[in-house]
Amino acid sequence: MIDCKHCKAYCCRRIGLLRPDLDRGDLACTHLTEDYKCDIYENRPLICNTDRVYEAFFKGIMSREEYDAVNSDSCRQL
Q1: Strand runs (DSSP E) across the chain, as ranges?
Q2: How many beta carbons lie within 10 A of that of residue 67, not counting itself?
Q3: Which has more pLDDT, 9 or 52?
Q4: Which of 23, 26, 48, 72 has its CB surrounded by the most CB atoms within 10 Å?
Q5: What residues does 38 pair with on adjacent strands?
Q6: In degrees to the nearest 10, what's the CA dihedral of 28, 7, 11, 59?
Q7: The model's pTM
């Protein structure tokens, strides 16, 4: 699993690049709160749910460990 314990919502602060409909005007998600939480977490879009994205698109082409490593590396780069 991806370790999100110390997440500062870097991907949520750039979601407007991939989902302009979620952009609050500064590329950040309209559902991102001031304390870096998602106010629709239980009903978040597919793109925001790494578990569902893995199952839908990546399960057949890489292991879960590889997928998690790629996502964790992306967080560090953001």
Answers
A1: none
A2: 19
A3: 52
A4: 48
A5: 32
A6: -150
A7: 0.76
